[in-house]
Amino acid sequence: MEQNNEQPVFGIEKLYVKDLSIEVPNAPDVFLEQEAPQVTIQLNTSGRGVGEGVFEVVLTVTVTATIGEKTVFLVEVGQAAVFRILNVPDEQLDPLIAIACPNVLFPYARETISDAVTRAGFQPIVLQPVNFEAMYMERLQQAAEATVQ
Question: CA angle at residue 60 from 119 to 44, to 5 degrees?
Answer without folding.
Answer: 145
